[in-house]
Each structure stands twice: as C-alpha cells, then as structure tokens.
C-alpha cells in the first residue's frame, strides 16, 4: 500500500472531489485536504457546498457550476487553470459526474491539455450495490430513466434477460411508477431498493416487483433511492421466498 500523500496540490489541475451522500463522516482525509488547499471550489450548488465547507471549518471562494451554466463556467475554469490555479469540483452529493454535472468540464479540461485528478469517495451506486446481496461481478448502471413512459419502458427492455445486475437512480416521486414498470419487464427478478443510504433511516427493501408494489402501497416512500434488479431467478429458493426485511429486521 502506498503511503498517504501529504504533498501540495499540482498547479493547473482540476480535482474531482467526492463528498458524502448523507453521512458527513464519509468525507475522506484527501477530500478535506484538497478542499483546503485548492484556490477555488466549483460547486453544483454553492449554498449547499458552503454549508459542507463550513462544517469542516474550510473557507474558500465558491463559484457555481450547474447544468445550465456549465458551458460558460467551463471557460472560466479553463482560464483559472491557465493561470496555474488548482480548481476543485464538488456536486451536491457523491462523486461528480455520476448522474450530476461535471462531465462537460472534465472533457474540456482534458482537451485543453490540463490534468484531471479524481479524489474518490462516496457514490450511492456502489454503496447500494455492494450491500444489496445481488451479483456484483457484472452490473449495468443506467442512472435516471428518461421521463417519458415509452422511452422508460424501451430503456428497461434493453436489459431484459441480462445476467448482469441493473442499477438505477430514481426520485421518490416516481419510485412507485418504476416498480410497476419493473413488474412488466422483470416480473421474476429480485429487486432491491436501497433507501436513504448512510442516513438515519437507511433501509434495504428486497422482493419481486409485485411484492415491493404491495409494500409501497402500504407506506409512503420518502427519501432517496437506488433501485437494483438482479438477474432472472430460475431456481425458487430462499432468495425468492424471503420477503422484504427492513432495517429493524422485520419481515413484511
Ligand atoms: N453523484 C451522486 C453519486 O455519486 O451517487 C448521484 C447524484 S444524483 C443527482 C442523485 C441520486 O442519487 C438520487 O436521486 C438517488 O437516486 C441517488 N442517491 C444519492 N444519495 C443517496 C442516498 N443517500 N441514498 C439512496 N440514494 C441516493
């Protein structure tokens, strides 16, 4: 194992800094050092990142870098890198560029010949997948589905019959709709819903789509979700028989 790096940041470098997805203890030592030593933090939401920095007693200039001004901000970030500044990119939660802004900046910075460094840390998809109990050897991460019903269904159908685990992000407002869609396309698959990862009310709900539809009909589904679909289960056994067990250990 390499020893911890304590050197200074490299001038003219863009640092992609992962931040917690709920539990502030999940920030890494390197993320904190990078945020302390950089010249400026480009944030998806400056107010939210400002609160994070304040929590860790870090004072740093913040510029906003969200979806609708990413093109203009990219130019400004390139200008800063040209003058030798060290720029950190932070999104609202997790790893920048995973279903949130950052991609355009990274491509432009690479094309302009500057260094991009990843400061890895939390991301909801890995936290969810690794604790799901579903196969992790091969998986497809598809982020958020499109909004329109036809396009959503077509996207899901691309993965019907796949031996890999499918991992999706979904808003609490559409999670019930998603379960109905999963019931149509993956009726015999194990689905795991990871809710509020790393937070006080974290739970994993497991079952077939129809079993989970029943659970969702009984209680309000609040918070953030990662939804995963396992490969088709052709051998009825404990996995298909055991129903939903929530964080309190109760079966439903
Ligand atoms: N960049 C982030 C990452 O690395 O995971 C994802 C950003 S995306 C805009 C937000 C989505 O990630 C949420 O709608 C939800 O699907 C998922 N997510 C983020 N935090 C989560 C959490 N604590 N528990 C469950 N899902 C979460």
Keywords:
Methyltransferase, Cobalt-precorrin-4 Transmethylase, Domain 2, Cobalt-precorrin-4 Transmethylase, domain 1, binds S-adenosylmethionine, five-stranded parallel sheet, five-stranded mixed sheet
Task: Explain this structure.
The protein has two domains: 13-119, Tetrapyrrole methylase, N-terminal domain (Cobalt-precorrin-4 Transmethylase, domain 1), CATH 3.40.1010; 124-244, Tetrapyrrole methylase, C-terminal domain (Methyltransferase, Cobalt-precorrin-4 Transmethylase, Domain 2), CATH 3.30.950.10. The longest helix has 13 residues, at 70-82. It has nine helices and ten strands. α7 (175-185) packs antiparallel against α8 (209-218). The strands form two sheets. Strands 3-2-4-1-5 form a five-stranded parallel beta sheet, sandwiched between helices. A five-stranded mixed beta sheet has the order 6-7-10-8-9, with helices on both faces. α6 links the parallel β6 and β7. The N and C termini lie far apart (44 Å). The chain is of the alpha/beta class and 252 residues long. Helix content is 33%, strand content 21%. It binds S-adenosylmethionine (SAM). S-adenosylmethionine (SAM) binds next to α5, β7 and β10.
């Amino acid at each position: 194992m390499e020893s911890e790096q304590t050197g200074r940041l490299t001038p003219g470098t863009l640092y992609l800094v992962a931040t917690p997805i709920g539990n502030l203890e999940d920030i890494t030592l390197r993320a904190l050092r990078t945020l302390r030593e950089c010249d400026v933090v480009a944030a998806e939401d400056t107010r939210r990142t400002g609160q994070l920095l304040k929590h860790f007693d870090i004072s740093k200039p913040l510029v906003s870098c969200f979806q609708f001004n990413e093109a203009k901000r990219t130019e400004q970030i390139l200008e800063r890198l040209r003058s030798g500044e060290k720029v950190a990119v932070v999104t609202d939660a997790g790893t920048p560029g995973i279903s949130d802004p950052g991609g355009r900046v990274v491509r432009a910075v690479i094309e302009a010949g500057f260094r991009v460094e990843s400061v890895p840390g939390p991301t909801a998809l890995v936290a969810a997948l690794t604790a799901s109990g579903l196969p992790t050897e091969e998986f497809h991460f598809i982020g958020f589905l499109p909004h329109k019903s036809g396009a959503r269904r077509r996207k899901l159908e691309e993965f019907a019959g796949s031996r890999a685990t499918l991992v999706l992000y979904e808003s609490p407002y559409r999670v019930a709709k998603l379960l109905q869609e999963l019931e149509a396309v993956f009726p015999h698959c194990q689905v795991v819903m990871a809710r509020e990862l790393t937070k006080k009310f974290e739970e994993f709900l497991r079952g077939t789509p129809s079993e989970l539809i029943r659970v969702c009909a009984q209680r309000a589904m609040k918070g953030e979700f990662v939804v995963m679909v396992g490969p088709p289960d052709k051998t009825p056994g404990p996995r298909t028989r055991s129903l939903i067990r929530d964080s309190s250990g109760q079966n439903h």
